[in-house]
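Researcher: I'd like a candidate sequence for this fold, 699 residues long. If you have to choose between options at a position, lean toward the conservative one.
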């Protein structure tokens, strides 16, 4: 639910932002229209007055091809980076040499366009355009002129001159290349013959044709000898280990403990025989006493066996040393044989390397010679020996439609730019405009409570009562509903006070404070309050005109002590609403309003009425409103929406606050509710339900 509410709030903010921008534009739509009309009209006049310029375009294909001969830089240095090549061709197309030939051929110097120029050819070149087509080998050559037929002729003439220069350059390159190739062929032929002779002599001297077979045999033998040498080296290592262990043994028992000795078949046989004799001796020892003849006979045999074991062990140690020496001699013999075989292999490898080198040299010389001979034949039969090819894809046609001015495009562009410029200008003016236009401005800049918003209305001209009494005469109108909302807000500002006196004023003149005071008093009276409306504008009073009451007696009479409140408070046609006119206009209004008598009158009015509404002069013009504000329960400041400056409103508020009084709230007056107005976009259906009458205007 929270997510749904957040989504709806975000959508509302977006909708409000769009409506705000639409309102800004609509407010100064006349500016957008004027700029649009002037721009489009100006563009149309300029476009239709301009001399038509025709553009003729020819299409070329310029492709860089690689030379088809090896090491061609030795013949003619033509290789360059592709980009440099194409840039060069594009510059040649607009070169002075080519353009001057065309310029002279068509006598273009007689044209008014080039006649007065210090360098007519340079001016002509500026009208020639070379445009490469992206990611292709195609190039567009264009020329513009007031004469469509002349534009096509000149473009084709430039292309023809360029093609002629390309063919001439091809011929020159071809002739020079053929000359250089002819010079090189005898040298290459002699070089090929020399390399072939050297190869044949080497083959005869070293029987080179059997190199591969001989090399295979040598390397096979070398591999076999290496295997034998590896095997013997392993055997030598094993024999040396056995011999070392025998040499380190110091007693017969240590010799017998050696693995080489223990593994001897003879010694194992002697040990088995000794075990049998020892078992026999043990059996006899159980029957005979020690030293008896049977026991001694067995012991004598055991001693003989031990002697044989020691003799056999000593013999094995000697045979190990003898075998080690034999293996060493055999290893030396094989090493000598291996060295001889390696020397033979190196010799064969060197001869083969030399043979391969001679063969490659012959092959390379033959290939280069054959290519030069082939290229010479091609050059003799054709002159196509250039690093690039040029082809005319499309010749320039006589243009049927001028390239400039593009009237439709100019008008569309002028329309678009003027609309964008006009809208941008409205936002600039809006940024510079510091008037209060909406309740958001009040919250942001003024920071005072908003009591309500009064929409603008239209009424018959000259009928003051029709303007000022709308809340009474049209109770179901949106204006009446607006004042009822203000009444509600006002009643909640001080809910605990029974009687209240309010001063209705504005920072400057012509902001609708009098009309607001009258209609607010009417709304309070309709709500059941006993209301006294006092015309305290002692300089330019006009409330009495609205109610068609004489102003001969009123507030000033009370202030000078001539009459009481009851004497000059007239009951109006509206129930619960009484009116106190201004009375005779005094020479010193501020002194009268700031007198002790005014305080007494204020208290007397509050005793007799629930609410007292004072219509006062503007805050900035005179001090009357500030004097009254100090004696009342609060001041209601009226602001003309979209007209009153923020600085003026702030200055009016400061006038009130500087004397210790307070502004209880502001009323945003004359808010536009017509389609496109601020009020329409901010509050599109706020009062729609209650609006039954035609819209009218007020002061």
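Model: Candidate sequence:
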């Amino acid at each position: 639910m929270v997510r749904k509410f957040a989504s709806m709030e975000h959508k509302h903010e977006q909708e409000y932002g769009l409506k705000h921008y639409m309102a800004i534009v609509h407010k100064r739509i006349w500016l957008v229209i004027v700029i649009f009309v002037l721009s489009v009209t100006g563009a149309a006049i300029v476009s239709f007055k301009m001399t038509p310029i025709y553009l003729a375009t020819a299409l070329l294909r310029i492709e860089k091809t690689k030379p088809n001969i090896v090491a061609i830089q030795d013949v003619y240095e033509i290789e360059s980076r592709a980009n440099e090549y194409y840039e060069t061709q594009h510059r040649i197309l607009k070169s002075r040499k080519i353009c001057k030939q065309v310029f002279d051929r068509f006598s273009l110097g007689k044209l008014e366009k080039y006649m007065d120029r210090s360098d007519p050819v340079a001016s002509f070149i500026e009208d020639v355009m070379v445009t490469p087509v992206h990611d292709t080998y195609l190039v567009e050559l264009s020329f513009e002129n007031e004469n469509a037929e002349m534009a096509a002729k000149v473009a084709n003439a430039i292309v023809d001159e360029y093609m002629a220069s390309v063919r001439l350059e091809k011929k020159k390159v071809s002739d020079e290349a053929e000359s250089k190739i002819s010079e090189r062929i005898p040298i290459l032929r002699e070089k090929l013959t020399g390399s072939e002779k050297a190869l044949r002599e080497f083959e005869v001297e070293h029987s080179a044709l059997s190199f591969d077979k001989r090399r295979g045999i040598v390397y096979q033998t070398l591999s076999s000898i290496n295997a034998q040498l590896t095997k013997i080296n392993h055997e030598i290592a094993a024999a040396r280990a056995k011999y070392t262990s025998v040499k380190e043994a110091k007693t017969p028992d240590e010799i017998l403990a050696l693995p080489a000795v223990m593994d001897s078949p003879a010694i194992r046989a002697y040990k088995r025989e000794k075990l049998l004799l020892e078992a026999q001796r043990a059996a006899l020892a159980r029957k005979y006493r020690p030293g008896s003849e049977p026991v001694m006979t067995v012991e004598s045999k055991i001693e003989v066996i031990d002697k044989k074991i020691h003799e056999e062990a000593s013999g094995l140690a000697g045979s190990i040393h003898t075998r080690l020496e034999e293996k060493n001699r055999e290893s030396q013999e094989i090493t000598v044989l291996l060295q001889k075989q390696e020397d033979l292999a190196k010799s064969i490898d060197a001869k083969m390397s030399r043979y391969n080198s001679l063969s490659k040299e012959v092959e390379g010389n033959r290939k280069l010679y054959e290519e030069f001979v082939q290229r010479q034949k091609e050059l003799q039969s054709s002159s196509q020996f250039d690093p690039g090819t040029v082809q005319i894809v499309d010749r320039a046609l006589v243009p049927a439609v001028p390239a400039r001015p593009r009237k439709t495009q100019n008008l569309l562009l002028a329309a678009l730019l003027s609309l964008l410029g006009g809208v941008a200008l409205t936002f600039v003016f809006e940024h510079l405009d510091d008037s209060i236009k909406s309740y958001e401005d009040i919250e942001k800049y003024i920071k005072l409570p908003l009591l309500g918003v009064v929409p603008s209305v239209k009424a018959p001209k000259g009928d003051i009562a029709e303007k000022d009494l709308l809340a009474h005469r049209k109770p179901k109108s949106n204006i009446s509903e607006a004042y009822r909302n203000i009444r509600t807000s006002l009643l909640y500002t001080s809910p605990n006070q029974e009687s209240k006196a309010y001063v209705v004023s504005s920072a400057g003149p012509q902001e609708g404070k009098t009309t607001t005071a009258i209609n607010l008093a009417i709304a309070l009276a309709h709500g059941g309050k006993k209301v006294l409306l006092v015309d305290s504008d002692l300089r330019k009073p006009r409330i009495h005109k609205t109610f068609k009451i004489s102003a001969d007696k009123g507030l000033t009479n009370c202030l000078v002590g001539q009459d009481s409140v009851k004497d000059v408070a007239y009951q109006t046609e509206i129930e619960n609403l009484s009116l106190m006119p201004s009375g005779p206009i005094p020479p010193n209004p501020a002194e009268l309003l700031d007198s002790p008598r005014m305080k007494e009158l204020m208290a007397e009015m509050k005793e007799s009425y629930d609410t007292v509404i004072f219509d006062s002069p503007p805050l900035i013009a005179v001090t009357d409103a500030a004097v009254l504000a100090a004696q009342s329960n609060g001041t209601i400041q009226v602001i003309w929406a979209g007209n009153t400056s923020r600085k003026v409103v702030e200055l009016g508020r400061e006038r009130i606050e500087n004397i210790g009084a307070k502004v209880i709230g502001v009323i945003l007056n004359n808010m536009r509710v017509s389609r496109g107005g601020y009020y329409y976009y901010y509050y599109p259906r706020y009062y729609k339900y209650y609006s039954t009458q035609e819209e009218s205007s007020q002061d």
